[in-house]
Amino acid sequence: MIRALSTAASGMEAQELQIDVIANNIANVNTTAYKKMRGEFQDLLYDNLEAPGKEGADGNQSPTGIQVGQGTRVASTQREFTMGDLNQTNSALDLAIEGRGFFKLQKPDGTFVYSRDGSFKTDSQGRMVNADGLVLDPPMIFPPDVRDVMIAGDGTVRITRANDAESVELGQVELVTFANPAGLEAVGHNRYRQTTASGIPLVGKPGSEGVGRLNQGFLEMSNVKIVEEMIGLIAAQRAYETNSKIIKSADEMLRQTTQIIR
Question: 39-72: string of b/e by CB count within 10 Å (b at 16+)?
């Protein structure tokens, strides 16, 4: 019965984390390019009261043995990099990645972070930057008299200046892919950091093999589906409630045991 108390408690702790993950997903349902997370769980060690295959006094072997588990634990939180819906904004510097890939952004200290949030602007120097002022790498610098910006699916940027009738090529937007994007470290503000688990960043041209294409005038929305999250929330609540009932039942059995002594 003491084992039942700790086993049920581990289940309650696991469901608390599951609800925390679901709450964060729902909170970010309208966050640009947010990728939903899910908790993954593993069972704990087992008490082998009788090992499978153990020979009894009569020489027969136990086909299954007697094993009692000690509960569950959180193994990891997995981020799902499935595509979110595309929302049309008609802004020339809004870019959505259709497929695999991340934008490479340079921080003021020279280090790099990666994002699928393509809501870009220009700063005072004409550089293409994100909402926090991080510069897109390689840098894209627009002249002050630019009249029109066209960004093709392969990342080619062409501009038309105020006094020109013909457009000219300005540069190339590149994307970065990782062997294991789920291994990236989320650092907030729609950004990720490279880790040993993610592998090294591989720079590629949009639309090339294994790299997504760009959609100008669109933003990728969150891939959170409210109905799925609500179903998961109900399941986690019921699992938490059931584990609490196990603790109450074990406590009642312990109480009855102590009353026998009296």
Answer: bebeeeeeeeeeeeeeeeeeeeeeeeeeeeeebb
Rg (the chain; Cα; Å):
27
Through-space distance between the first and last CA atoms of the chain, rounded to whole angstroms: 20
Structure tokens, 166: 């013909």
- Sign for the CA dihedral angle at 190, 191, 195, 199 comes to positive
In 3D space, the residue among 2, 10, 20, 69 whose CA is nearest the CA of residue 41 turns out to be 10
pLDDT tens track, the chain, 262 positions: 578 888 888 999 999 999 999 999 999 999 999 999 999 999 888 777 777 777 766 767 777 778 888 889 889 899 999 999 999 999 999 999 999 999 999 999 999 999 999 999 999 999 999 999 999 999 999 999 999 999 999 999 999 998 888 889 999 999 999 999 999 999 999 999 999 999 999 999 999 988 999 999 999 999 999 999 999 999 999 999 999 998 888 888 888 877 776 6
* Cβ atoms of 10 and 42 closer than 8 Å: no
The pTM (predicted TM-score) of the whole model is 0.86
Instruction: Mention every residue, 6+ apart, whose C-beta is less than 8 A from residue 143.
Output: 126, 159, 161
